[in-house]
Amino acid sequence: MTPPDAEKREHTYTHHGITISDPYDWLYDKSYPEIDDEDVLDYVRAENAYFEAQMEPQAALTETLFTEMRGRIKEDDSTVPQRQGDFLYWSEFEEGAQYRKHYRRPVGAPESAEPQLILDQNELAEGHEYFRLGALSVSKSGRYLAYSTDTSGAERYTGRILDLETGEHLADEIPDLRSGLTWVAGGSALVYGPANENWRTLEARLHVIGTPVSEDVVLYTEEDESFSVGTGLSAQEDYLIIATGDNETSEVRFVSAADPTGELTLVKPRAQGVEYSVDIREGEMWVWTNDDHINFRLAKADLTTPGNWETVIAGSDEFYLTDFDLFEGFFVTEGRLNGLDQVQIRQYASPQTIASIEFPEESYSAGLSNNPEYDQTVLRLSYESMITPDTVFDYDVANGALETLKTQEIPSGYDQSDYITRRVEIQARDGTMVPVSIVMRKDRAEILAAQGIEGPGPLHLYAYGAYGYAVPPGFSTTRLSLVDRGFAYAIAHIRGGDDLGRRWYLQGKMFERTNTFNDFVDAGRGLIDTGFTAEGMVTASGGSAGGELMGAIVNQDPSQYGAIVAHVPFVDVLNTMLNSSLPLTPGEWQEWGNPIESKEAFAYILSYSPYDQVKAQDYPPMLVTAGLNDPRVTYWEPAKWVALLRDVKTDDNLLLLKTNMGAGHGGQSGRWNSLRETAEEYAFILWQMGMAEEAE
């Protein structure tokens, strides 16, 4: 079967005196979000048929990988119960089920007591190709459960309310949600954020139970379309907090949760580049902000003068403060020191005195888990590393005792002592040292030799590198399907994430965006130079903004890679940032620049946008994915990119595009459907690395 050949249709546009030719613009259905152009759909279907035909010989390998991945998952698994109000809440998977069931039982009831099933996701998902649960919120009294669901992948959720006393749904139905559901007014009303026609959340609305949605009250309206509105409750649940902001600027208001239609109090007017979030305890406002230090400080203020911030914990060049939580008898600060997670217990009377929770490994991922009660004396924590499965702890604040409640079970077996993890630093081209976390088997050389591979073996390199998201050095059972076959698996903590502090993030955005791509390329080259792998034996993957990364690195250094997987890749950066009608564009200008208004931004984005920089050269084998209903990275970005690559690349390497026709940004829903897609990805990698037969 020959690959699809997309028609070229002449299309040009001019900005700032620069004219761009875009012959695949027609793949963008201009009736979006409706997608009904038959030419577009025919092309997407043709690519899917080509994907299926090319992957069919690897069906046995895909099934082998899926079976072993599934074998590492405890099918009848459950979360550790946690108290909220008068009940303990938890969720469970039943054997074979795709989705969770949610349960509760009264505090103090024996474990043998029959629990109350409060929500069954499997029942809600029945009859739908796609299903995802969004919000899940129980009223303070415990009577009502508000939840939201998405059955298309378009991330326009529908909110419902369940009476947990009768087991019946109320008539209330809230459409087009893009937010959580916050209980106020004694559990008689919900605050939510609707998505407008452009999938932007610019309002906070109040819905009173039993009233028509058409009568919902608008509590706040944001005029800046680049901002997004969110809501939540304070630590003692006595104040409703309404926040608005973009990627670098924020503004907060608050009002009594008992009287949410009362007058909103503004904390402090927005100022470009100043971020802040707040919580309220015992009549004091606590503020996390970067107003005087890039790594944030913690301050407090009187509620009558909420904008007069007095420093409690000063910003630090060494410690990156990422979050805080207020409890009745203490407060917690979270952050990173030298790139490693820190959880610190502090007292209100002496906030500079720190009781840091110590963790046993040199490289790990740790943080607060679900701690819903204000009067908590024991903190629920999560912990994992690249070789330690996910572990749930309870930490007794009074005596510092750390109790293990649950460690992730791997039914098919896992011996941590078979693996080794390392954290190395590799020098990027500008002299910056980039951390890389690596995991591999101790007997890797023997495994490779058994497959006839002498010397350095394959290495899979992963990164994200955007929005200040730090990829944690955590555990993955699916990853073992590569590692157990002789791969080293590495996470590059590149700029654009905030792994090493806020400045690390800022050095990978706007007019420093190319640092992200260079860091990744140089990390791979450094791993080759230090003997972890060899030229052409690096495989790589990334999704969304990480997919943009994949597009940039194959333009820059294609010979380094043996296979690339780009999930829902943000590769048509310039065109997307020029289209202000798209859902996310206005809010993204602070991340990438606004090429509509700025010639400098236009030229800089053009210089790296993967779609615009495709050239006549050899490219490695690539698997690209998309979601037809994806509102974040629209389907046409990967479609246009693949069409252009097919036209100009000079190699015969395999290039595949798979578009999920009934899903969105996260791929297929359900734990087994999602797992099968991972098995497909790994089958593609092993196949292209010449390891398919041995892998079966």
Task: Please characterize this protein's 3D structure.
20% of the residues lie in helices and 32% in strands. It starts with 11 loop residues before the first strand and ends with a helix. It is α+β, with helices and mostly antiparallel strands and 696 residues long. The strands form 9 sheets. Strands 31-32-34-33-35-36-37-38 form an 8-stranded mixed beta sheet, with helices on both faces. The chain has a 4-stranded antiparallel beta sheet with strand order 3-4-5-6. The chain has a 4-stranded antiparallel beta sheet with strand order 7-8-9-10. The mean pLDDT is 96. The protein has 14 helices and 38 strands. It is globular, with a radius of gyration of 26 Å.
Features:
about 700 residues; alpha+beta; eight-stranded mixed beta sheet; four-stranded antiparallel beta sheet; 14 helices; 38 strands; about 20% helix; globular
Topology:
Elements lengths: L11 E4 L2 E4 L16 H18 L3 H13 L10 E3 L2 E6 L8 E6 L9 E5 H5 L6 E7 L5 E7 L6 E7 L4 E10 L4 E3 L4 E4 L10 E6 L8 E5 L6 E6 L5 E7 L4 E7 L8 E2 L9 E6 L2 E6 L7 E6 L7 E4 L5 E8 L4 E7 L2 E7 L7 E3 L8 E4 L9 E7 L6 E6 L5 E6 L11 E9 L5 E9 L2 H7 L8 E4 L17 H4 L4 E5 L9 H5 L7 H16 L8 E6 L1 H12 L4 E7 L5 H6 L6 H8 L6 H10 L13 E6 L8 H13 L6 E6 L10 H18 L3 H4 L1
Parallel strand pairs: 33-34, 33-35, 35-36, 36-37, 37-38
Antiparallel strand pairs: 1-2, 3-4, 4-5, 5-6, 7-8, 8-9, 9-10, 11-12, 12-13, 13-14, 15-16, 16-17, 17-18, 19-20, 20-21, 21-22, 23-24, 24-25, 25-26, 27-28, 28-29, 29-30, 31-32, 32-34
